[in-house]
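User: Could you write out the 3D structure of this protein bound to ribose-5-phosphate? I've included everything you need below.
Assistant: Certainly. Input first, then the structure.
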Amino acid sequence: MDWGMENRLARIIKPGSHRTVMLAADHGYFLGPTRKLEDPGSTLRPLIPYADALMVTRGVVRSSLDPQMDIPIVLRVSGGVSIVGPALSDEGLANSVKDAVRINATAMALSIFVGTAHERQTLLNLAELVDQGTEHGIPVLAVTAVGKELEKRDARYLGLACRMAAEIGANFVKTYYCDDFSKVVESCPVPIVMAGGPKLETDMDAFELVHAAISEGASGVDMGRNIWQSEFPVAKIRAVRAIVHEGANPKEANQVFEEAKAGMKS
Ligand code: R5P
């Protein structure tokens, strides 16, 4: 692997633990003003010290983030669809690699929609992005998106989508947790990070989800709503970090969460 590519990947997936806590906040690219992300700058600012990378669009980078901050940007570069449009899978490349370089992106992220009418288009988008990313030494994160079809989140489908993403050349893959998640990880030759999904009912549910994914081989998480829609987002991300980087179990993570909450109140 080229030095630049390896160096960028190591800025995201930390060489010490071989894991990462990515903070996902790109939702607006198809969802508009998601709850708690109406003002991305003020939501993300206190969380940035605890994240290994930030997944956002160029619009949020330029409008809401301090250029002097020290955090790798995983730039969402696919788009062109909306939650009220005809097909979430009909994505194209919505950001040039030249502009990703200008932003100093550490990686670029794009969704693939395997099994949809736009499967070919989104897989060829990935191939094109990998070619351009390789030319510039910028890793590509493929997101195995399911759109509104949440029932697709099983090991057979996700295993297929992750493996295809890796075969096309993605440097790492983001997918959902599912039963038999370890099979998805084992059949994918590049690192997998787990997407969080909608906010879970309890904090403990989120800690259990992260712990299960890590125990079954995930290289980390790329989590959004379960962190920034929490009543205590800083405490929440600190607890997630404890699981991902320090091997905490859900109970220990909850203790980190409670202590961080108490520290904030005092
Ligand atoms: C998909 O890539 C989305 O844009 C989000 O980045 C992803 O769903 C992760 O965020 P959350 O943990 O809120 O699901």
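The longest strand covers residues 107-112.
User: Perfect, thank you.
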